[in-house]
Amino acid sequence: MVPPDQIRQLQALVGPGNLLSAQEDLWCYAFDATDHIQAPAAVVFPGCAAEISQILRLANRHGFPVTPRGAGTGRSGGAVPAPGGVVLVLTRLNRILEISPEDLVAVVEPGVITGRLQAAVEEQGLYYPPDPSSADFCTLGGNVAECAGGAVAVQYGVTRDYVLGLQVVLPTGEIIETGARTMKGVVGYDLTRLITGSEGTLGVITRIILRLTPRPPARQTLAAGFPDLEMAARAVSLILRAGLVPTALEFMDRTTLNCVREMLPFRMTQEIAALLLIAVDGHPHDVEERAGAMERFCREQGAGMAIRARTPAEAEVLWKARRVMSPALRQVKPQKISEDVAVPLSAIPRLVAALQEVSRRRGLPVASYGHAGDGNIHVNVLYDQKIPGEKEAAHQAVEDIFSLVRQMDGTLSGEHGVGLTKAPYLEMELSREAIALQQRLKRAFDPNNIMNPGKIFPPGRGRVTPP
Asked: Which pTM was predicted?
């Protein structure tokens, strides 16, 4: 625990009203979007990089852990506090510092809500593509720390493809600048890429330079319903190979669709076992032509239903249904384990079939949806912890799924990160030598291990039993 005299020092650093230490306040920052819970000793709200530098220097002197936090929307436990530690909440650093149409860049602080930046740049005819489902409330700092993706990643890429430079406070208190506001730059090691996706373990991001693109003038949304899961999964690879160039290509199984059926602008019939939600954007004439070709192609691949959204409002209804799918699944079972595996495109049909087998073997619903266009499928194992054996079976199902994904040359996380939830499984994907190298990098940045300790790397050596 952080003793009272050090909490008083923290209070002096951030000023009145910017530190919480009452138990009822601390529990509000004890968790993220996972089921992991750990109350911190204190919560601080710094207002600038200089204050963060002083906080981290104090942490190094006294050895207490610090966990950076944005909006707490992460799904891997990355913002769950270390025992006895301090949570560093970055929501006061919430300014859009610059939007430059001339340079096609934006400069922002980490506490800016992603959707707020998207709206601000669109007012100037620009576009910031990364679009996690939580864009209306997640922060850009958290997006960079986790290298968030989103539906349009199939065409536009993920967060790291838009981060040009960073200001970072290192765990030892130094403030550094990485990258530049230029589209190219190869001076020295690429620290910008190293810190992007490092889950708050290598430093605290305090300023971000982001690449922007011109706003596409037109977009159309299509929904294609298939009578068979594997048929829908096969259509994903065929669409991409056919050169139809979707902007977004999302997959949803029937379990997921049933949870949002009241939101859908079409009737969910028994013949729909899976849905592909597709967007195409570009010049209006090109979009019209490609959307028509996409609709015809889906029907040729067995879609019993293929419709285009008639208005932007109808398209928004479809995308809103997609964004709320994760919480909606709690209608099936009160608890769930959310994973975000990714496999090669050719393996998606095999993965979908294998998930059904895992569901049957473990006696639990396994729902899947997600960014099929880049092979990133969100797998949700649903359970009720009040029913004896279901929680244990859910964790066994997760290990089954990870084993299958690795056999298919896939990865255990496409965009959620490792955090706490995947740390026990790290050696399923990375060799001990690769893990040891990463741990040496961590020590070089953070010699006293005060920066978000316990995340990414499993405790001890060898295989670790899942929680």
From this structure: 0.95
